[in-house]
Amino acid sequence: MPSYHYGSNRVQRYARFEHAKPGHGSGAGYERWRSTEYRPHTPGERREDVYVAHHRLLAIVECYPLEEPIESVLDDLSEKDVHHRNGIKWDNRGENLEPVEHARHASITQQEVRAWAEDEKRERERRAAGISDEDICDGCGDVAELLATSPGFAGERCLECARRECDGEPIEV
C-alpha cells in the first residue's frame, strides 16, 4: 500500500483514530487507534494493521498511578476488561472507566442488558395500553393518577415518592 509512510523502525509514523462500526469486526462500536506495523510473522509484505481500543489506552493513564511501572500496568490490564460505568461505549472520560476482571465484567454487562430489556418490555406494554410518559412517576417508574412536584426533587413523583423525597419542601399536586 503506497499511501503508508514508514519511519526508520518500519512503523507507520502516524496512527489513525477510527470508530469501529457495529458489525464490522472485533471491537465493533468502540473507538480505536489503528497503526500499520512490520510483523515478521505476517505473510506477504509483512505489514499488519494493529488496533488498540481507545478506552484501554486511556485506562492506562486514568486508572493506574503514574508511578507504577508500565510493565506492571500492562500485565495487570492484560488480564482485565475495561468497563464503561455508564454503558456508553464512546464515553471515555477517566471517571467512567474501570478495569475489572473478565468474569465480573461479563456479569455486569449481562445485568445491564437484562435491565435494558426489562425497561424496553415495560415501555412497549405501556404504549400498547395507551399510557403516556406524563402518567409515569419519575421516582419509582409506576403509573400514577396524581403526580406531584417539589423544590426537593427533580421531575414528577407519585404522592408516595413525593412524600419520601421532598426533604421537607412543600409538595404541589
List keywords for this structure.
173 residues; three-stranded antiparallel sheet; two-stranded antiparallel ribbon; 30% helix
Q: Return residue spans where pLDDT drops below 50 for at least 5 consecutive residues.
A: 1-9
Query: For the report, how would you describe the main beta sheet?
Result: 3 strands, antiparallel
Oligomeric form: single chain
What structural category characterises the helix and strand content? alpha+beta
Strand arrangement across the biggest beta sheet: 1-2-3
Principal-axes geometry comes out as: elongated
Strand content: 15-25%
* Average predicted confidence as pLDDT: 81
Radius of gyration: 24 Å
Protein name: HNH endonuclease
Describe the structure.
- Helices cover 30% and strands 21% of the residues.
- The protein has 173 residues and is of the alpha+beta class.
- Among the domains are: 16-100, no CATH class; 132-165, no CATH class.
- Strand 6 (148-150) and strand 7 form a beta hairpin.
